[in-house]
Amino acid sequence: MTTNAPVKVALVTGAGSGIGRSVALGLLADGFAVVLAGRRPEPLQALVTEAEAQGQQALAVPTDVRDPASVDALFATIEEVYGRLDVAFNNAGINAPAVPVDELDVSHWLNVINTNVTGVFLCARAAFGLMRRQQPQGGRIINNGSISAHTPRPFTAPYTASKHAVLGLTKALALDGRDYNIACSQIDIGNALTELSVRMTKGVRQANGQIAVEPMVDVSHVADAVRYIAALPLSANVLNMTVMATNMPFVGRG
After folding, report:
1. What value does the CA radius of gyration of the chain take, rounded to a whole number of Å?
2. Would you call 159 a catalytic residue per the annotation?
3. Whether this model's pTM surpasses 0.85
């Protein structure tokens, strides 16, 4: 049974903390009903409680994006509860230890690829299918890339490879979605300040081997960027957007 769905329904993966949480709060403020996916149920439920206190509608669905059955269950719930999906923000992702590639355990490589590539593929695949079936047809898929989709940091082969793969997937989905009114975007983020990135305020290895403190950007600006893309009509798309701390060493020579 479907509910009387609001005008728009959004999915955010990795919604329990950091960028995902900030984006979810922004989409809730914009009037979306937001499905919150993540591996830890406690922060998801805390966000539901926070949303409901504001008169907003959120649904927590604990999900492991690496597991096809878990992703299938997530989208079955979305279809059962809301009957459609308008925006999917594929945000869940992880990193690996920053060590020379020959010292990296293969398990770390597989974990990054399974989460950052296969997880994005599984959720995008399911979102594409629901958006293609639903009436009115169409929707928007937004993938969380990274500036690492374009330029690596030292000792980040797994993460960099995964984000280059997401860039290719985004372009493929943008092309394949044309006939079904499905738009696909990628937001490439540089130095957003979250619980996971706060360590960077103490110094980050640079290409020349030095450790340097880098500027950070408030995560709310990332959320605002996703909100902008989500609000566009499906006749318009932001294929790629970079949101970064203005003075971080990305362009030029640092």
Report:
1. 18
2. yes
3. yes
